[in-house]
Design goal:
By secondary structure, the chain is mainly beta. The strands form 16 sheets. Strands 32, 33, 34, 35, 36, 37, 38, 39, 40 and 41 form a ten-stranded antiparallel beta sheet that branches. Strand 53 (875-880) and strand 54 (889-890) form a beta hairpin. Helix 7 (147-158) packs parallel to helix 8 (190-198).
Length: 1323
């Protein structure tokens, strides 16, 4: 038997190669087993080694070079092709340079990189090599993290290739395509797999230390395989085989969860033996009509054959010369006044294929086939276009769908006949298993599309004119501009038979820039407001925060899920990474190494990516139970921590997958139920913590717009020494600040050195601050720190001690000050002040006066491409004394993102002058804003009682804007039944909870300018629990200019608009988001001229049962009390005015004060206006309000929230006077008290003030003339601060009104707001 085996082996061993023999290996190391693999390849006459990554495992380039020399090059061999693996990327440039230097002239002449790139820079990462009938495409480890780019590279290389045999090579396989116990997570590279399959290429990878081969695959992601001969394999276009060859010197691995899957043809793991090396050797013929012969051998030469198969590749169609490009169709002649718009597919779930035999819906296909792929069943294609901005009443003059050809085959070039229909729904909903393309009710006009000419890859082709079908939808009674339109394309004859002819379109999932586009031209109706000349498609209303939008381009966030949803759905963050104020500990500062995500007791917590559990439960190093997971990454490992766990469902050492349930939510010592989530990069100590939003699905800053960013002050301390303070303000969706860097162009700056350690650099980096100041005493002695005397914890201290209020150095990091505001979810702004001391290398040549000083402040965001994107990928710059750029202007950085819906710019109304109308004093008033009185610019001081000329701003059309406003207070989403109003429920039952009930919802700060045209308005609910059964409710808006809180008046007492019924038949699934019908007509009546609406007022809705409601049937939504967000109001609209409105809260505790004559009270829990047992002045300071010098102030007022009821002793109205601090930029109150400020000559008297009711909202009179005097000062700038002063006026009164302040329970949410409407000065 042994003789027979040896004879067979030697017979094969002696067969000469007639073409090219490749040795395909991975995961090598430099030990004995690796040496045996190279001996096998030499003895079998391998011409070229193709190594898929992981070389010596120690990042020692010289060691790997020595191994190659000893085992390959010194044996007369000279050809190696190697791509990067995860154990190579840290020093890949060094490996690349060494390997390219050893690259033979033969390889260099047959290999190339990307277009316009040198092979020397693309070796092993973007490399394509052609050897007659063999074409190899190799992609590196990092490059596979951008699957869209990688798939495009594969397609660009194979299209037009004349090689019969095609091979794709990269390191890491999808977890389900290898049978081992490690690396079982899928990582979303299916697009690249499918691109190789479509081109008939075999996929070779490693990473897992084993060997495996799948059966012939017709769809990788869904594991569709062919049970035809899998020993003598015939591969056509659309077919492939996935092979893992990862035993170059490592292995074998144990069996894992996929080992027994039927799609594997063969494998070698520890269940088959324990030989530690193996090589796949493939002999590719020189002739195109011959098959390739492959064997996998293990052990010492001559080796033992584990797998033996042949490949007959017949996919040569893509290399057939393309048909001539047909002449372009001339565009239609449009009538005068026609508007043209283009609406592209905006997500992968909007272009789908439905299989006609079973209704299966494919949302992630890399192409759209008319009609069949390898399944031999025709598809119906569905295309949904979101945000179609055709105004109601418009006449559609042309409409086509433009598609990009994805592939072409001469055998499929015959005529294709299709029917095109348009969904008759006036706002077509998303594709789903219950709303497939075949289930749509189409409009009456069905269009024939007969495609006779051949298509050319990458060329664009249009359908026939669909204007009549689109017109039917636009003429629907409930159509509104911004709605969605869906197009259905299906086979016209023999719909169940594929036929020989087909055409293939590109899909969004393959390349968003090649996805289908709906192109429409229309003539607006006579009464329709037109959008701007370059209309922008309105976004589909989306809750905020929401799933991070998909972006094409080189940089993309890692494939992680959110810890409390297990999906891409994002929930509220209660505290972000970095310095913060601790409310539970007297608002002292500390450094927060993660993010806090609110949840309820035992809510599920999920692993964000796959990995190995390191800690589960109690641990001596942590105060509360936790789960810690170790994850494999290109640079080694990172760790995720899930803290305050109430329970855990995993054990130490257990392998977990992305999205796996790992435990239940718990509470910290403060009683706050939340998950504290951390990411620690490169180690598991506290010092390794980095911003979690660099890993998690979150909004990309390019889509959120820049931070508010300005240089607050520049001080010259001495010759060549400066102190610079920068302010950054961000919204609750922009919590990704990472670094602030200060530079003085033309001046070299030096850091202050302490004991040889750089502890005061010219930048402040949150990651670096945590890393440096989290060192323990064994690594960094206490006396190395310049503030070691402040360490509260002795020699074992961490970063927090540098932020302790008790030291008097609040916010200090060894000389740098990083001072954040109190973070309250849903606050309009969260502010951070960073002060850095700089020192010039050569003080004598450094600028010595402010007039000569130019300072740059660069602010960086976390890069949303974990461990991948360059540091300056997200950067914006503010300057001082340099002229340009403007403060906060983002610095252009590559790559350019996919165009996204516009970031809304709040636009205010054009107020109508009205005489003041004293308001009666009801016990529960509805808050009304003051009647705005337009004011002209005030270049010189005005008399106390000006008589302004009427101001009539000229309205100008504006682009479509979009806002999403969440519930921000527990009194703003309530349930009412049997006369009782419930303000504290964790959910909202629509409309039944033991009995029928009303649900009231109120949104504050709705930034819609008066008289705007509302296109779309919907309420987005997050399902709190599963629910089915039909539910019928009606929705109405409160008809008032600013809705009051529900703790003042119940939902049943509100004066309501007409209503819209919502018939809910779709089952709700817990955690999913569901939207109401379009409520635009109802909201339009609130913001129209008939009401005294002001941009930023509050809006309320009441939801009630209808006559069709069924007792016991409901849908249950999450409330504010459950997650701090509650339902959102999502609105798209066109502002019809040039007036801009800003709503500014108090942002810091020290910005609203009471001056009692001898002292200034900073931290009072309320503000008594004018009198609190003695005379006092209330000072309100608003920072960097962003209004340019010389702007025309149309309206200004302060909006107060009442802290307590006015009592009987306050029946008499206070008599108050309002002025502003008359300065170019108002200083802090600690520098100059309110009583010592120079005040404006303009003033406004405030009397006839009604009695206040707790939580009621009350406006001051219009103070436009006062604000105008300040912003007209010659040295005023957009970054200037303004202060409002409120004091008693003659005749004096001891009555008062008591308002909420920043130090009240809700922070800035109920603090006094300064609301200013203005027109920017002419250029």
């Amino acid at each position: 038997m042994k003789e027979l085996l040896l004879t067979i082996t030697l017979l094969y061993y002696s067969v000469p190669s007639t073409g090219l023999k490749l040795g395909l290996i991975g995961d090598t190391s430099t030990g004995t087993d690796a040496t045996r693999s190279f001996e096998l390849m030499r003895d079998y006459g391998v011409d070229i080694i193709v190594q898929n990554g992981d070389f010596d495992y120690n990042d020692e380039v010289s060691t790997w070079e020595s191994f190659l020399n000893s085992n390959w090059f010194l044996h007369g061999k000279e050809h190696v092709l190697m791509s990067s693996g995860n154990h190579d990327v840290l020093v890949w440039s060094d490996y690349r340079d060494m390997l390219f230097g050893k690259m033979s002239a033969f390889l260099k002449s047959n290999c190339h990189g990307r277009d316009n790139h040198q092979l020397s820079s693309d070796y092993g990462t973007w490399m394509s090599c052609v050897f007659q009938e063999v074409h190899i495409v190799m992609i590196g480890w990092d490059e596979m993290q951008t699957p869209q780019t990688a798939a495009s590279f594969v397609n660009s290389e194979f299209i037009g290739s004349t090689s019969t045999h095609r091979v794709c090579v990269w390191h890491r396989p999808e977890g389900s395509l290898q049978p081992g116990h490690r690396h079982t997570s899928n990582y979303n590279s299916w697009l690249v797999y499918e691109a190789c399959r479509e081109n008939g290429a075999v996929v070779i990878s490693g990473h897992s230390h084993l060997y495996s081969r799948t059966k012939k695959v017709t769809n990788f992601e869904s594991k569709q395989v062919s049970n035809a001969d899998n020993t003598n394999i015939s591969l056509n276009c659309g077919e492939s085989v996935a092979i893992v060859s990862g035993m170059g010197g490592k292995g074998p691995d144990d069996n894992g969860p996929y080992a027994n899957e039927p799609y594997f043809e063969t494998s070698y793991t520890t269940s088959h033996g324990n030989v530690g090396n193996g090589v796949l050797i493939c002999d590719f013929p020189a002739a195109s009509d011959e098959v390739a012969h492959c064997q996998f051998l293990i052990g010492e030469a001559p080796g033992t054959i584990i797998d033996d198969f042949t490949i007959d590749s017949t996919c040569v169609e893509n290399s057939t010369p393309q048909p001539p490009t047909p002449p372009p169709t001339p565009p239609p002649t449009l009538p005068p006044g026609a508007v043209e718009i283009s609406i592209p597919i905006q997500s992968g779930s909007d272009d789908v294929e439905e299989q006609t035999d079973n209704g299966d819906l494919k949302k992630t296909s890399s192409d759209l086939e008319m009609w069949c792929d390898t399944s031999n069943v025709p598809y119906i294609i569905g295309l949904r276009f979101i945000g179609v901005q055709i105004p109601k009443g418009a006449t559609v003059v042309s409409a086509v769908v433009e598609a990009t050809c994805d592939e072409w085959s001469s055998s499929h070039a015959g005529e294709v006949n299709a029917l095109i229909g348009v969904d008759s729904d006036s706002d077509s909903d998303a594709w789903s298993d219950t709303r497939r393309p075949s289930q749509r009710q189409l409009v009456n006009d069905i269009i024939d599309w007969n495609i006779a000419s051949s298509w050319v890859v990458n060329e664009k082709y249009s359908t026939p004119d669909l204007s009549s079908a689109v017109q039917e939808v636009v003429d629907s009674f409930d159509w509104s501009g911004g709605n969605a339109i869906s197009v259905v394309i299906k086979k016209s004859a023999e719909p169940s038979v594929c036929g020989d002819s087909k055409r293939v379109m590109e899909s969004f999932d393959k390349d968003p820039t090649g996805a289908a586009v709906l192109k429409v031209a229309y003539v607006p109706g006579e009464s329709t407001p037109q959008p701007s000349s370059t209309p922008t498609p309105a976004p589909s209303p989306t809750p905020s925060p929401s799933v991070r939008p998909d972006m094409s381009g080189e940089y993309k966030a890692a494939a992680a899920v959110w810890p409390t949803t297990g999906t891409d759905q994002v929930t509220m963050v209660a505290s972000t990474f970095g310095s913060r104020q601790l409310v539970s500990q007297g608002k002292r500062y500390d450094f927060h190494r993660g993010i806090d995500i609110p949840c309820s007791e035992e809510d599920p917590v999920y692993a964000v990516t796959g990995g190995t559990v390191r800690i589960a439960g109690d641990h001596s190093g942590y105060s509360d139970p936790l789960v810690q997971i170790e994850h494999d990454t290109p640079t080694g490992v990172y760790y995720t921590l899930y803290m305050h766990m109430n329970s855990w469902t995993v054990n130490e050492g257990e392998e977990v997958t992305k999205g796996q349930h790992i435990g239940g939510c718990g509470a910290s010592e403060s009683g706050f139920w939340h998950v504290h989530f951390e990411v620690r990069e490169g180690g598991y100590y506290s010092k390794h913590a980095v911003h979690p939003l660099s890993l998690l699905p979150w909004h990309d800053p390019l889509l959120e717009g820049p931070f508010q960013h300005s240089i607050e002050s520049v001080d010259i301390l001495s010759q060549g020494r400066y102190n610079v303070t920068t302010r950054i303000a961000m919204t609750a969706e922009q919590l990704y600040l990472k670094k602030v860097d200060i530079t003085i162009p033309g001046t070299d700056l030096v850091s202050t050195k302490v004991s040889g350690r750089d502890v005061r650099p010219t930048f402040f980096d949150l990651h670096e601050a945590n890393y440096q100041y989290s060192h323990r005493s064994a690594e960094w002695p206490a006396d190395d720190c310049v503030y070691s005397e402040d360490h509260q914890l002795g020699d074992t201290y961490d970063v927090n001690v540098h932020l302790d209020n008790g030291t008097g150095k609040v916010g200090y990091f060894n000389g740098q000050v990083y001072k954040p505001s109190l973070f309250v979810s849903n606050d309009p702004l969260y502010e951070v002040y960073v002060s850095i001391e700089l020192e010039a290398v050569d003080p004598l040549t450094a600028p010595s006066s402010l007039d000569d000083l130019c300072v740059h402040s660069d602010v960086y965001s976390v890069n949303f491409a974990f461990l991948n994107a360059p540091d300056d990928f997200m950067k914006q710059t503010a300057t001082h004394g340099c002229g340009t750029p403007e403060p906060g202007e983002p610095t252009p950085q590559p790559p350019t993102p996919t165009p996204q819906p516009p970031t809304p710019t709040p636009q205010p109304p054009t107020p109508t002058p009205q005489p003041p109308t004293p308001t009666p004093q009801p016990p529960t008033p509805t808050p009304q804003p003051p009647t705005p009185t337009p004011q002209p610019p005030t270049p010189t001081p005005q008399p106390p009682t000006p008589t302004p000329e009427p101001l009539t701003p000229t309205p100008s059309p504006a682009p479509v804007s979009f806002i999403s406003v969440h519930i921000s207070h527990k009194h703003d989403d309530v349930e009412q039944s049997n006369g009782n109003v419930n303000h504290g429920s964790s959910d909202l039952e629509l409309p039944y909870d033991s009995t029928f009930q009303l649900v009231g919802m109120r949104w504050r700060g709705v930034a819609i300018p008066k008289d705007s045209v509302i296109h779309d308005a919907r309420i987005s609910f997050t399902a709190d629990e599963d629910g089915d059964g039909p539910v019928s409710v009606r929705i109405a808006f409160e008809m008032t200019s600013s809705a009051a809180s529900f703790d003042l008046t119940a939902p049943s007492t509100r004066t309501l608009s007409s209503h819209i019924n919502w018939e809910i038949t779709e089952p709700w699934v817990e955690g999913n988001i569901y939207q109401s019908p379009n409520l635009a007509t109802l909201l339009q009546s609130v913001v129209s001229s008939g009401n005294e609406w002001i941009d930023g007022n509050s809006v309320a809705v009441v939801i009630a049962k209808t006559d069709s409601s069924i007792p016991g049937n409901d849908r249950t939504a999450v409330s504010f009390n459950k997650d701090g967000l509650g339902p959102s109001l999502d609105v798209s609209f066109t502002p019809m005015t040039d007036v801009i409105t800003k709503r500014m809260p108090i942002a810091f505790s020290e910005d609203d004060v009471e001056d009692r004559g001898t002292s200034v009270l900073v931290d009072s829990s309320d503000l008594e206006l004018g009198w609190d047992g003695k005379n006092q002045i209330v000072g309100l300071r608003y920072r960097s309000i962003g209004i340019p010098q010389g702007a025309t102030i149309v309206f200004a007022a302060v909006l107060f929230t009442a802290d307590e009821d006015s009592d009987a002793n306050e029946a008499e109205s206070p008599n108050l006077v309002i002025r502003c601090d008359d300065s170019d930029s108002s200083l802090e109150w600690s520098q100059v008290a309110p009583r010592d400020r120079s005040q404006t000559s303009n003033e406004v008297i405030w009397n006839s003030i009604p009695l206040w009711t707790t939580d009621g909202e009350y406006f001051s009179p219009d103070i436009a003339s006062v604000v105008q005097e300040v912003v007209s000062r010659p040295n005023w700038s957009p970054s200037s601060h303004i202060s409002v002063l409120i004091s008693r006026n003659e005749p004096l009164s001891e009555s008062t009104r008591t308002a909420e302040c920043f130090d009240g329970y809700y922070g800035s949410i109920e603090s006094p707001y300064l609301i200013v409407s203005y027109i920017e000065p002419s250029p």
